[in-house]
Amino acid sequence: MTIGLLQAHLSIPESRSLKDKRSVLRSLKDRILNEMNVSVAEVGDQDLWQSARLAFVTVAATRDVVDARLAELGRRLDGNPRVVLLDVETSLF
Question: Which phi and psi (to 5°) does residue 14 adopt?
Fold first, then answer.
């Protein structure tokens, strides 16, 4: 069993309030949760309206599956036009 963790630091340039930020993050998280086998939580920058830190976790029987999921997740975050991916860190356990 392998556990994968991806931590992402995002900028949300279109956000003008915490309400705007929540809307963007809700849409992003819902889309990813519907399409991928991961869990997500906002783990930092909750009070900043143009920044977010998200943690995604996935579990699979083999490392290859976890690596592929995390790579796909990184591509989806980087390709989302509503956010700017500033930093990403992955860990395997």
Answer: -80, -10
